[in-house]
Specification:
Blueprint: E1 4-15, E2 18-30, E3 35-40, H1 46-54, E4 62-71, E5 74-75, H2 81-87, E6 92-95, H3 99-102, H4 109-120, H5 125-138, H6 144-147, H7 157-169, E7 175-179, H8 187-204, E8 207-212, H9 215-221, E9 224-229, E10 232-238, H10 239-244, H11 249-257, H12 266-280, H13 286-306
Parallel strand pairs: 3-8, 3-9, 6-7, 7-8
Antiparallel strand pairs: 1-2, 1-4, 4-5, 9-10
The chain binds adenosine-5'-triphosphate and magnesium ion (MG).
The site of adenosine-5'-triphosphate has 16 residues, from β1, β2 and α1.
């Protein structure tokens, strides 16, 4: 039996322009100890999928329209708040895309780090602090004892991201959802953080859902990959198969991109070609137009980044 089984998840946002189906019928499973990559272009619904599982979709404007997410006999989408509290933040933890907004600037690192322990495990403060210290050391922060007393602004971006990882792992979750945990970091720090997640995963026998734009990251970390496009899963394959024989145009484009010098331009360029083709063929709808818009912006951003 899979550790997590998501069936027909649909999450919409009610906006001024109508109902926007951000996640549109997503089904997948996650096995114990498995690392599942979730890739797809910006706006394809990766974060909203994760938020839906974590009960973090703002309602309104968001609404979980349908679906189940079974974890150890509990449906995460329909359980009571009390049941949810025993699972989320303890047995399932998440690292967010943006560590700057996820840490409270007014609280010392120590207090933020041990909060999940105080809530979920009801242990004494000194015992929680001892675990906090051990966890900060485990994520590679030097002088951890002194650092515990610091505030987030005294940490670098990479250190804040490590703190986020420590916070997520301190309760030894069975599932870690990592939403682009390294996007904000420079390449060397990125590599260190990825190694760290890999190491801790093996130590804790965790399953990981790893959201990323980067197929290079996927090939180094994931057993299986799912590709999201416009709210749907368009391709699921074990990592090796996906790299050998990608089926969806977006995946093909992504795959080509890692052999090229301009990783951020190429996938979007190919995607744009495909979108324009469909647009010309009259297969147009709001999403395809939005896709073209995104890809044009992406190419512009890619050109800026690579000079
Ligand atoms: N609070 C919200 N209100 C309205 N629309 C939203 C809200 N949150 C997300 N959306 C929409 O849902 C869609 C999916 O967003 P999501 O954040 O899941 O994308 P993503 O795949 O994680 O993209 P990225 O790679 O940029 O992080 C987007 O079009 C976004 O505009
Ligand atoms: Mg996202």
């Amino acid at each position: 039996m899979p550790l997590l089984e998501v069936t027909d998840l649909r999450t919409s946002f009610h906006t001024r322009n109508g109902v926007y189906r951000a996640v549109d019928g997503v089904s997948f499973t996650l096995a114990k100890g498995e690392t599942l990559g979730l890739v797809g272009e910006s706006g394809s619904g990766k974060s909203v999928t994760c938020y839906s599982l974590m009960g973090l979709v703002p309602q309104p404007p968001g609404r979980i329209v349908s679906g189940t997410a079974m974890f150890d006999g509990t449906d995460l989408l329909h359980c009571s708040p009390a049941q949810a509290r025993t699972i989320r933040g303890k047995r399932i933890a998440m690292i967010f895309q943006d560590p700057m907004t996820s840490l409270n600037p007014y609280l010392r690192i120590a207090d933020q780090l041990i909060e999940p322990l105080l809530i979920h495990e009801k242990i004494s403060r000194p015992a929680a602090l001892a675990r906090g210290l051990a966890m900060l050391e485990a994520v590679g922060i030097n002088d951890a004892a002194q650092r515990l007393q610091a505030y987030p602004h005294e940490f670098s971006g990479g250190m804040r991201q490590r703190v986020m990882i420590a916070m997520a792992l301190i309760t030894r979750p069975e599932i870690l959802i990592a939403d682009e945990p390294t996007t904000a970091l420079d390449v060397t720090v990125q590599a260190q953080i990825l190694e760290l997640i890999k190491k801790l995963q093996q130590e804790f026998h965790m399953a990981v859902i790893f959201v990323t734009h980067d197929l290079g990251v996927v090939s180094g970390l994931c057993d299986r990959v799912q590709v999201m496009y416009a709210g749907r899963l368009v391709e699921t394959a074990d990592t090796r198969t996906l790299f050998r024989t990608p089926r969806h145009p977006y995946t093909q484009a992504l795959q080509r991109s890692i052999r090229h010098r301009f990783p951020y331009i190429d996938p979007l360029h190919h995607l744009q070609v495909e979108l324009v083709r469909r647009y010309r063929a009259g297969q147009t709808d709001e999403r395809i137009q939005r896709g073209i818009h995104i890809s044009i912006n992406g190419i512009a951003a890619g050109l800026r980044n690579t000079g």
